[in-house]
User: Fold Type IV toxin-antitoxin system AbiEi family antitoxin domain-containing protein from Cellulomonas wangsupingiae.
Amino acid sequence: MVPALAPPPLPDVVTLPEPVRSQVLRQEGVASVAQLERAGISRRTAARRVASGRWQRLYRGVLVLQSGAVSWRQQAHATLVAAGDGAALSHASAGYVLGLVRVPRGAVVVSVPVARSVRPQPGMVVHRRRTMPHASGRLRTVDVVETVLDLLGEAADDDQAVAVLAAAAQIGVSRTALLRRAQERRWLAHRELLRSVLTDPTLGIESPLEHRYVRDVERAHRLPRTVGQVRQRVDGGWIRADRVHGGAGVRIELDGRLAHPGGTTDRDVWRDNAVLLEHDDLTLRYRWSHVAGRPCDVARQVGHALTRTGRPTSPTRCPRCP
Assistant:
């Protein structure tokens, strides 16, 4: 989750009377004109300070009491203030706060109760929803399960959808809660993908590349099933293999990093050697270019590895096989 660090007190905020001072500090220097009026600052005074550059107007009726750069968190606070009662960050904006999205994207996205109507302004995207399950925190967000489903609904393809589910798994989102809430939604993109990924105990999928491997290499060619994310003790420490053919002595490691021209690293090579020495397992490594571009060749190579380790395997032809 993105750390909620308290910003240094802004001089103009410190001089405000309580309880407005505490409220504006919680909003990291963002204040509505109505809040300032309760603190004894007239609209005319606020307008003069904006005109002089001492303060900045982020939305109609919403100011940040400082000059200079405005942080994403301040922009998010301003969006919540502008959207009014019951508003919460949602979709990619909530995903950023909750640790599902690495960097904030474009306009700040909020959701409001369906009974309310908020006029969108530049830099703000507004959704209306029947239920508003909130997460706790300095920045109000729709809760993490709803946020995962919102992001899933926006995923352009299976790879993006699996990336959302992998991010959810990494921060410990409950699979049971995701399945239950997904069932409650009348419409949800990638519903079947979510169900297949979350209900198969052998998948253990933690990346889009791993999903592609299982779908396009293993299952499309009817290879023996692997188990995902297997932990083992090797060379005095714990490792986790992406896919393991239990009892066959073959494991698959998948490198999803696009900008990694050298392929494996020294650490990877050392680990492969330790696995071979301690467990007598053969490690095959594949990257995006292999799994996405040559899945049939990968299947043939895996079949050959299984055959060499004592499990004769002939991959079945898939529609893509030459």
